[in-house]
Amino acid sequence: MIQLKTPQDIEGIRRSGRLLARLFEEVGPQIAAGMSTYDVDRLCDDFIRRHHAVASCKGYMGYPSATCISVNDVVIHGIPNRHIVLSDGDIVSVDITLDLDGYVSDSTHTYEIGKVSPELHQLNEVTEKCLYLGIEAASKPHARIQDIGAAVSSYARRFGYGVVRDYCGHGVGFSIHEEPNVPNYVSLSSPNPRIREGMVLAIEPMINMGTYRIKTDPDGWGVRTQDGKPACHWEHTIAITDKGLEIMTVL
Ligand code: MF3
Ligand code: CO
Ligand code: CO
User: Fold this and answer.
1) Which of ligand 1's atoms lies nearest the C-alpha of 67?
2) What order do you get walking across the sheet with 178-182 strand by strand?
3) How many A from CA of 119 to the centre of ligand 2?
C-alpha cells in the first residue's frame, strides 16, 4: 500500500530533508584523501546527533552503521571501515537516511577525491544528471512511476553505462523503504502507479561504468559491480505537493 502524506507530513519531511542537505553542505567539503570511510561516517553521525536527529540505517535489518559509504566499484551499502582509506582519483558515495521527529528523508551524493580520470568524472556527472532527469520525468502531468526509470535508463545507456536492476528507489517519509518500488529501468513486471499528490519518493539512480550486474560482499551488505569497474549513485527525496513536485533534500 502506498502511504500518501498530508501537507503536515510533507512539512515534517521537508524539515528532515533540509537538515540532510545541510549535512552534505557541511561534511562534503571535508571529505578528502587520507580519510577512511569510517572517518566520513563519524563526521556524518556527529552532525546527525548534534541536530537531535537519528540515522535510520543503523540497526535496519541489522545494518551496523549510521551511513553507507561506497568507494569506486562498490555501488551501494558499503559499511564504513577504518581500513578503507580514500585516495586521489577515487569516487565515494555517501548515502544517508535521516529521521527527524519521525520523518524520514534519504539522499546520496557522490564525491570525487582529488583529481579523478575524465571517464570517472563523466560517470559522476551523468549519474547526477540521471537523477535530475528522473525527477523531471516524475514532475510531468499524468506521470507514472516507470517514467522515472525510462528517463534514467535512456540517458545512461547513451554513454554505454549499465543501469543497476537489483536495487531501486522507493517510497519514503514514515520509514526507510515504503511502496512503491521505483526502478531505474522500465520493468514490465513491476507496478506502474500514477504519481500523485501526497507521494514522497526516493529517486536514486545507480549507474555502472560497465556491466549492470552486481554481486554482494561476504559481509552481506556491500554491493559491487561484477566486472570491478566503478559505479556511481545519487539520490534525492521528492514530494508531490499541491503546488507540484518539490525536492525535499536541498536547501
Ligand atoms: N539509504 C539506502 C537507500 O537509499 C538504504 C540503506 S539501508 C541500509 O535505500 F540498511 F543498508 F543502510
Ligand atoms: Co539512500
Ligand atoms: Co533510498
Assistant:
1) 12
2) 178-182, 169-171, 200-203, 236-241, 244-247
3) 24
